[in-house]
Each structure stands twice: as structure tokens, then as C-alpha cells.
Amino acid sequence: MHEYYLTVFSHNGETIHEERFEAESDEQAKKKGEAILAEKQLIDTTHRLTRSGKLLLFHR
């Protein structure tokens, strides 16, 4: 299992949501991150998903 960090930003760059979770692979983490964003209605908000400094998902 790897540890992933999902961060969502407001239009002015402030962090509005931050969440840590675990997943077995990067692909599973992307799906889980997108599910979290959809659930919280943040899918169209600027966000990023990282693992150990590696950028896996980014939306602006």
C-alpha cells in the first residue's frame, strides 16, 4: 500500500480540502481520488493528487 495526498484549492490558491488515503496502485489511487472529489462536488475545482512528490492527477 502507498500513501496518497489529495489537495483541493480555491481560485485564489488557498487549500480548501486536504485528504490522505492509501491505495495499492497509482491507478487505484486516481479512481479513489476522483470518487472523493465527485462525492464532495469538487471535481471541477483545482486539485492535485500526489505520492512521494510525484504528481499523479492535476486539474486547473
Describe the protein in words.
With 60 residues, this protein is of the alpha+beta class. It has one domain (2-59). The protein has one helix and four strands; from the N terminus they run E-E-H-E-E. It has one helix spanning 26-39, and strands spanning 2-9, 15-23, 47-51, 54-59. The chain has a four-stranded antiparallel sheet with strand order 2-1-3-4, covered by helices on one side. The protein is globular and about 35 Å long. This is YhzD-like protein. It comes from Halalkalibacter krulwichiae.
Count of DSSP helices?
1
The fraction of residues assigned to DSSP E strands is over 45%
Total of domains:
1
**Bulk shape:** globular
Rounded mean pLDDT is: 96
* Cα separation of the termini: 28 Å
Q: Largest beta sheet: what is the strand line-up? A: 2-1-3-4
Helix content: 10-25%
Poorly predicted parts: none
Largest sheet: 4 strands, antiparallel
The beta-strand count equals 4
User: Which structural class is indicated by helix and strand composition?
Assistant: alpha+beta
Order of helices and strands: EEHEE
Task: Outline the secondary-structure elements.
Layout: E1 2-9, E2 15-23, H1 26-39, E3 47-51, E4 54-59
Antiparallel strand pairs: 1-2, 1-3, 3-4
Protein name: YhzD-like protein
Sum up the structure in keywords:
4-stranded antiparallel sheet, 4 strands, alpha+beta, globular, 1 helix, 60 residues
Task: Give a brief rundown of this model.
Helix content is 23%, strand content 47%.
